[in-house]
Structure formats: structure tokens, C-alpha cells
Write a structure and sequence with these properties.
Bound molecules: iron/sulfur cluster
Distance between the termini: 21 Å
């Protein structure tokens, strides 16, 4: 089962939920935690994994052989990202804008474009206290997170439970990280900002046809609007974590919730069981 942990905005407690869910399950099943928040991965701060492998991620970018080029402009026409331009008898490429889709080299009538790799980041994987771990780190200044996220997700095994920590927001990196999940947990807080970003995140996962539920973090701050929205939209609130200085203190020291306050272990196991029920119901519905 693949469970993604997402939030419409950063700082809502995604890491807290992802790390504690992974640790609570390690005695039950094979568990993997894949940190796909490649711009700012921080699950490793809490899990302190032993890294066994590191691999660079290369993004293919075009290289033009001007000896073969006729300056027809076809490559610039097909590039949706304006990463290649033809000005008179010059072809200019802008590697930082290139998404590595390969359309320009495929469609160049003179076969004047080859691809060379630009290092976009690294993926590291290993293990931590019974949890298999992988994360990606985007190169500083690099904008193309999806290839690094894809590489992190390649580490997913087809057995056991895979927990994917998704980048915050609702853009391409989020879609790349969330897609193929069996369930998406949306972590939010009961504030107007939390509600605004939750509504956007729900729109994204519904578009991807992935069932979702909410973890309400820092309950006690703000208002009841998130709860009212979830009720109206029939989205279950599967776990509530109160605003608590002890939880904040543990987090600031890089200690997971289930290690710092072991009573939370049972709550995370219940959370997983509720997710399992939803996933199983959906599987039975599709079989009918
Ligand atoms: S499509 Fe090929 S031949 Fe045409 S301008 Fe681009 S590189 Fe040159
Ligand atoms: S590989 Fe795709 S994104 Fe990159 S320059 Fe070519 S068409 Fe544009």
C-alpha cells in the first residue's frame, strides 16, 4: 500500500505525521519512508538513517549540432517551456528551463539535437531502526524537482507499506509525488490559511482520483472552519493532534512524536487501520 502525506502549505506537520506513521508500523510490516520533499527534505533529521547508497540524478537537456541545423525553428515551436530559441542563425538553449521532455530532439527534422545530462540532484537511500528510507536532494538553484522525485519513488518496493512525504503545495512536484498512491493523508491546521490550502490540496487529489483523509494538527488554535469544510465535503478527519508545547519541544529537538510520547503509537496504528479500511472498501467497490 502506498500512502502519501501531503499538505497545501509547508509547516503544517507533514514530517511529524510521516515519520511517526512509519515508526509506528515497523513492527507490523515492511515499511519504507520516501521523502519526496526534495527542495527541503527533513525526515532524515528525525529518523537519522544510515545511508548506504547515493546516486546522482541527471536531467536530459538538448545539445544542438549547428553543423546539421538548418535553423528551421521547429524545436523552439514545440518547446512548451521556452527552453530553446532560434534567432536568425543561432540556436540558444536555456537548460534551467528545460523539463527534459525530449520533444525537440524527437521532432528536429535534421536530427541535429542530442541530449546531455545536467545533474539535477541526488537520491540517497538506506535504513533506520527497522524502516527503509530514501530521500532526494534537489541541487541548489535547480527548478526541476519531478525527475528527482521520480528517482526517489523508484526505490519503492512492491511489498509492505510505502509512505511518501510529498512536497508542500499543489504544483507539478506534488502531482509527481502523490500519483500512484492508494491513499493521501492531508495534514492541515485549523486556521484560515490551513483551510485555504486544504481546499486546493483536496482539489488536486480528487483530480488524481485518490481517496483522502485529513490529519488536523495543532487543534485548539484557530476556528472550526476546517472541520465544517471536511463535514460538508465528506472528508474524514482521521487523526487530531492538539497544540501542545511538549510536541513542539520534541519536534524542535528532532525527536519523533511516537518516540517522545510513546502513547501516540496506538493513535498512529489506528490511523493506519482507518486508511486500510478505506483502501479495501475502494478495492471491493471497483471489483463490483
Ligand atoms: S529543429 Fe533542428 S534543425 Fe530546426 S532549428 Fe531546431 S535544431 Fe535546428
Ligand atoms: S527537452 Fe523539452 S523542455 Fe527541454 S528544450 Fe527540448 S522541448 Fe523544451
Amino acid at each position: 500500500m502506498i500512502i502519501s502525506i501531503a499538505s497545501g502549505k509547508g509547516g503544517t506537520g507533514k514530517t511529524l505525521v510521516a515519520t511517526s506513521l512509519a515508526l509506528s508500523l515497523k513492527d507490523r510490516d515492511r515499511v519504507q519512508l520516501l521523502d519526496c520533499d526534495v527542495e527541503e527534505p527533513n525526515d532524515h533529521i528525525f529518523l537519522k538513517p544510515t545511508i548506504a547508497h547515493t546516486e546522482a540524478v541527471f536531467i536530459p537537456v538538448p545539445k544542438v549540432d549547428e553543423g546539421k541545423c538548418t535553423y528551421c525553428g521547429k524545436c523552439a515551436e514545440v518547446c512548451a517551456y521556452h527552453a530553446i530559441a532560434v534567432l536568425g542563425e543561432h540556436v540558444l538553449t536555456f537548460p534551467q528551463l528545460c523539463h527534459g521532455c525530449g520533444a525537440c530532439s524527437y521532432l528536429c527534422p535534421e536530427k541535429a539535437i542530442s541530449e546531455e545530462g545536467r545533474e539535477g540532484g541526488v537520491v540517497e537511500w538506506g535504513h533506520s531502526d527497522g524502516v527503509e528510507f530514501a530521500h532526494g536532494k534537489l541541487t541548489i538553484g535547480e527548478a526541476m524537482a519531478p525527475p528527482v522525485i521520480r528517482k526517489v519513488k523508484e526505490q519503492a518496493n512492491n511489498e509492505g507499506i510505502v509512505i511518501v512525504d510529498v512536497p508542500p503545495g499543489t504544483s507539478c512536484p506534488v502531482v509527481e509525488a502523490v500519483k500512484d498512491s492508494d491513499f493521501c493523508l492531508l495534514v492541515t491546521e485549523p486556521t484560515p490559511f490551513g483551510l485555504n490550502d486544504l481546499v486546493l490540496a483536496v482539489g488536486t487529489v480528487r483530480e488524481l482520483d485518490i481517496p483522502c483523509g485529513v490529519v488536523l494538527n495543532r487543534a485548539g488554535v484557530g476556528d472550526k472552519k476546517v472541520e465544517e469544510y471536511c463535514q460538508k465535503e465528506n472528508i474524514p478527519i482521521l487523526l487530531t493532534i492538539p497544540l501542545d508545547t511538549e510536541i513542539a519541544r520534541l519536534y524542535s529537538r528532532g525527536i519523533t512524536l511516537v518516540e517522545g510520547i510513546p502513547q501516540w503509537n496506538g493513535s498512529f496504528l489506528e490511523l493506519f487501520d482507518k486508511i486500510g479500511e478505506t483502501v479495501n472498501e475502494r478495492i471491493s467497490d471497483t471489483k463490483r
